[in-house]
Amino acid sequence: MSTPPMMNGGNVPMGMPHRKKMMMHMTFYWGKDALILFTGWPGNNDDMYMLALLLVFFMAVIGELLSYCNRVMMKSNGATSGLAQTFVYTIRVGLGFMVMLALMSFNVGVFLAAVLGHAVGFFCFQVVMKKKDDLMSTTPC
């Protein structure tokens, strides 16, 4: 069995693209030099880092909103309602996975944005809206 011919002093097989080694954090770190969701994003720009944090925050809030919507829609029956529930559930799970992938950057700012987004969303939609729904159901019309 022969070994593939090497170039670059035996480091890279011929025909294989030479890739830059990318440093990836495997522990929590604080800093704006993060790679979140997409290659090269947010880069070294402070504004883009803040935009990335806001995106993670709002994805978490929207995930909690969709969780609330799915709970409200469970009160109705029928095939159309079941399809709507499935659609909302699918979007909610997709957003949850995107938040999880963003957290895999191990950036403390992303972690705090995700936790804060889930907390704000839970408070708004599970606490405040639930109380509002309970008041509306007990108030005589």
Automatic annotation (TrEMBL):
Q: Which family does it belong to?
A: Belongs to the copper transporter (Ctr) (TC 1.A.56) family. SLC31A subfamily.
Record-level GO cellular component terms: plasma membrane
Please report the record's description of how this protein sits within the membrane. Multi-pass membrane protein
Please give the chief subcellular localization of this protein: membrane
User: Which domain of life does the UniProt lineage start with?
Assistant: Eukaryota
UniProt-recorded name of the protein? Copper transport protein
Signal peptide: which range, if any? none
* One term of GO molecular function: copper ion transmembrane transporter activity
**Compartment(s) where it occurs, according to its Swiss-Prot or TrEMBL record:** Membrane
Tagged with keyword Transmembrane: yes
Can you name the source organism? Artemisia annua
Write the record's keywords in alphabetical order, separated by commas: Copper, Copper transport, Ion transport, Membrane, Transmembrane, Transmembrane helix, Transport
Transmembrane parts of this sequence: 83-103, 110-129
